[in-house]
Amino acid sequence: MAEERVPEISPPIRATITHVIFDMDGLLLDTEKFYTEVQEKILGRFGKTFDWSLKAKMMGKKAIESARVFVEETGLSDVMTPEGFLEEREEMLQQLFPTAELMPGVKQLISHLHANGIPMCVATGSHTPHFKLKTQNHGEIFSMMHHVVTGDDPEVKKGKPSPDIFLAAARRFEGTVDPRNILVFEDAPSGVAAAKNAGMSVVMVPDPRLDVSHLKEADQVLCSLSDFMPMEWGLPTF
Ligand SMILES: O=P(O)(O)OC[C@H](O)CO
Ligand SMILES: [Mg+2]
Fold first, then answer.
1. CA torsion through residues 67, 72, 76, 82, sign
2. Which ligand is located closest to the Cα atom of residue 206?
3. 180-191 confidence digits (pLDDT tens)
4. pTM
5. What ipTM score was computed for the predicted complex, to two decimals?
């Protein structure tokens, strides 16, 4: 009797991933809303409104780079310097950051990858003092990371969309890791571009208010980290 063949039902593998890099703000932590709130307040003082086309240009970048975008794009450069903008928002942000909460699906995904021995790290445009404020209640999640690269790291000469931060993050894993075997998770257009510039695959989990034109470069776009299917990337299934 002929042997019965079981039909192949698994989706094709998109890439063979061995290492994972996570963005932080807006991806692991629900902190982008704090930047939005504070920037709305500052612009409100000048009778202007903060919109998502400006947000898209600012998010993911180093503080000073995003501050330059803010004053130029809002036409406030005659009345406010990028440094002045950072100073004005700092006190408000320092109050908000310690209340940061995890985004949906973070705990489940990171615990799963950690339990299966997948090396992971964080690459965030945030500088060290802000990183500490934001993560102070999330030690368990961040302790599962092999390392963290922040925007003020000396190897990060330029912020996202430069590939600097992701290439520095890749170099700090054990051994030599081919960028093609690295999967980046990002929420920001500049971060997706940085990952592609580094030769890596990228899953984007964008805020639904971002215009769809910003989603084109990502290899996969998900509504939530909870929707991630590790099997599609050659990673151990849940
Ligand atoms: O999204 P991240 O973690 O690179 O952080 C960037 C800024 O701090 C916020 O947009
Ligand atoms: Mg981000």
1. positive
2. 2
3. 999 999 999 999
4. 0.95
5. 0.96
